[in-house]
Amino acid sequence: MLRKFEIDSGRVVESASEESPILVFANPDLSEKKKLVETYKIDEQHINYALDPEELARLELEPGCVSCFLKIPKNYSAQDHFLFKVSTLGAFLVPERLILVLGEDISLFDGKSFMKTTALSDLLLNLLYRVICHFLGHLKTINMICDELEKKINRAMENKHLINLFTLEKSLVYYLNAINSNGVLIDKIKLNAARLGFDQERVDAINEITIENTQCCKQAEVYSNILASLMDARVSIVSNNLNVLIKMLNIITIGIMVPTLVVSIFSMNVTLPFQQFHHAFWVIMSFAIISGLGVFFMWKYFRW
After folding, report:
1. How far apart, in whole angstroms, are the C-alpha atoms of residue 169 and residue 234?
2. Which residues pair with 69 in a beta bridge?
3. pLDDT tens digits, residue range 248-290?
4. pLDDT tens profile 7-25
5. Topology classification of domain 2-229
6. CA–CA dist 13, 266 (Å, integer)
């Protein structure tokens, strides 16, 4: 799917012109891949890199084309079952055009950072900043989900919520790896700022992006470490809840068993006391109730 954009008064707006300087190929088909290779002279292997979610973020400088591969968070859906995934975006800066290739159609140019865009190089830096903000938003969401799951685990006696926490822990590992990979990419862009034609203002913007990415990485690392370090404690909570339930069931069973024993003794088909007594039924029931109360008071006294 091909979408076209242009820069109008500092903003990125969608365009229908064939000469649009910004082209976004979302999950391109064979004909679109052929157009990328033949018309814009982009290496076919680089296109495959952009569509590979396992590809690392990096920068490649070639005559007539700057290839930038960065990691972006995928949009979360209920079918993912608490697994937050990452994918790859390929940004190809060719003469007078910025071509973006990615595996799914997502909104790329929303946010305040795209309201002051004057050149394609600015757009590339704004895109990096937007990806960092997207990661931060997902990290906050993961933290909120973890808090909700922790509350449920305190009352749970099944493994469903623990499995969800393990999935979130796996997601944080993926995110931490992706953010670190983007950090290497940003550093490489900074080292090659002169070759990319960046002036001092854009170099300062790269420094700010580096700081934001470092903070994002630290936050992901903190969340990941906390979740991993407390996982054993949460497993113990679920086991303890199950033990408490079994204990209560055992006490209830014993409490029912003692009165049942009393009634069973007087139900035997042999000669028994109180057979001729007119109120024998109520006497036996009294014995059963007293034995049940005895078990109850023993439970309270010994704090079972």
Report:
1. 13
2. 58, 90
3. 888 788 778 888 877 787 777 666 677 677 777 788 788 888 8
4. 877 777 888 877 888 888 8
5. Beta Polymerase; domain 2 (3.30.460)
6. 90
